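Hi U.,

Before I forget, here's the chain from the pilot set. I'm dumping it here mostly so it's searchable later in email.
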Amino acid sequence: MFYIIGLGLGDCKDVTVKGLEIIKKCDRIYLEHYTSILTCGISELESFYQKKLLIADRDLVEQSADTILQGADIEDVALLVVGDPYGATTHTDLILRAKEKNIQFQIIHNASILNAVGCCGLQLYSFGETISIPFWTENWKPDSFFNKILSNYQRNLHTLCLLDIKVKEPTLESLTKKKKEYMPPRFMSVSEATQQILEIINKADSGCDVTGNDMCIGLARVGSESQKIVACSISQMTTVDLGPPLHSLVIPSCVLHPLEEEYINQFKLN
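Structure:
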């Protein structure tokens, strides 16, 4: 059997009882380690599960998925995923591959940022399309994500912005070499994300519905004991330090429900 097990958002203890029971009986256990991270380290996970974990980086999951599925028809194999298994399309692809090979599979769900974002006080059914904000480089500054923020805003919907993660990313120079070299891990902060958004706003040819004075909400380490939430203007958020990763950003609707306003007040600066 092939299992994809959601680990939740906090630390090793966020795994469900069902998930933990399955982990303890598995013959081979992979930890997907590039779409998200927990606040605890791998050694802490291994100690809690009392199992050895195999690290599944981007290359293994996306290019050598068959290695993970190998033998899953005769033994129990698990892929552990931070958040919920369906939070990334990569995991959906693994399920389709398992079906093609007639390998039985089971999904163990858990909390993800897509529902835990409700901790900021915004009502989940008022969220529009979720977007991802990529790291810019000197010569590559994609801004199509901002159009989706505008679309949600114009329809009185909130936007959850997932911020870029760079884990074991090959350098551009190494792509032409036989041996890959990797960039140091990077995790986008809410200040970096709002700096990019503000640059897009300032470059707009005409009046933009979303301005630097509009409110945004920064979230850090959701689900952990060190969770932090701050609400302020987009311009102010460019200087806010929410500490270690992972960070997420929300651009609220221009019209809030009174309960949303009341709840958000506790997170406002000053």
